[in-house]
Design brief:
By secondary structure, this protein is mainly alpha-helical. 74% of the residues lie in helices and 3% in strands. A two-stranded antiparallel sheet has the order 1-2. β1 and β2 form a beta hairpin. The longest helix is centred in the first third of the chain and has 25 residues. It is globular and about 55 Å long.
Length: 266
């Protein structure tokens, strides 16, 4: 029964991606950890695969509408690719299972990753609730290469650590630093997320992480079905109106995870 709830959640994740162009993947890790009972490290690895695959499906629709800037994707993605791959291959395996004990509170690798993930959820929720858009229609594309490079590294490391796509960081960077129109930024972001997430997953395979391919395939299938449904519904339901409400939901989830991981283990 609990697995059925998890697969329904996977459909919901895909629908959210299809409706608002991002944000849904932030729920993948909590679903895998709290419903399917995975440890934090394999959950973030599975999330990379699910996020990468669903984002790739979503980006194809934008490619058909010529709403992907491949040049911008290349400029942003190279440092992100390297950062996420080496984070999964080297940094995550190097983090000790037991980090430190403060008073009666043991900080473990799983707790650290879930706390980082919850903080990312809170940051993501703020972005969705405020939903401040900077429109740049008609402006000439201008690349701030140093800042784009730095942003790519930051997003890549965060993606590698917590297994989320980081679209709420990528889209503002593409709009502000590369002067992309919003729709073009969303399509380009999906392509970047798909590529770096799948590359990060390859880092896990290289680190000999044991993968439950059956679970991963079924969960991904439901998420893909969801993004197809969400893309269809987006023709009738404006994602802009749903985004703040979903942001509040993500905020509540982030606070819940912080409370669960910190106070339950004291």
């Amino acid at each position: 029964m609990i697995e059925i709830i998890g697969y329904i959640a996977a459909i919901f994740i895909g629908i959210t991606l299809g409706l608002i162009g991002g944000g849904g993947s932030i729920l993948t890790v909590p679903v895998l950890v709290y419903i399917f009972g995975l440890e934090a490290v394999p959950a973030t690895a599975y999330s990379l695969f699910v996020v990468g695959l669903t984002s790739l499906i979503g980006s194809i629709a934008f490619m058909k509408k010529d709403l992907v800037s491949f040049k911008t994707a290349a400029v942003f993605a190279l440092p992100a690719f390297l950062a996420v791959f080496f984070t999964r291959l080297i940094i995550v395996p190097a983090i000790p299972d037991h980090i430190i004990t403060i008073s009666m509170f043991d900080i473990t690798k799983n707790i650290l990753i879930m706390v980082l993930f919850a903080l990312l959820m809170v940051g993501s929720s703020y972005s969705m609730i405020k939903d401040k858009r900077v429109e740049t229609e008609g402006e000439e594309l201008q690349f701030n290469y140093p800042l784009i490079f730095i942003e790519g590294i930051i997003v890549g490391v965060l993606t590698g650590l917590v297994g989320a796509g980081g679209g709420f960081l990528i889209i503002p960077a593409l709009v502000i630093l590369a002067k992309l129109p919003m729709k073009l930024a969303v399509g380009t972001s999906l392509l970047i997320i798909s590529a770096k997430s799948l590359l990060g997953f390859l880092g896990d395979i290289g680190a000999n992480l044991e993968i439950d391919w059956a679970l991963l395939a079924v969960f991904s299938g439901f998420a893909i079905a969801g993004i197809i449904i969400g893309s269809f519904l987006s023709k009738y339901i404006p994602g802009k109106k749903l985004k703040p409400a979903f942001g509040w939901f993500v905020l509540v989830m982030g606070v819940y995870i912080l409370g669960r991981e910190i106070f339950v283990h004291i």
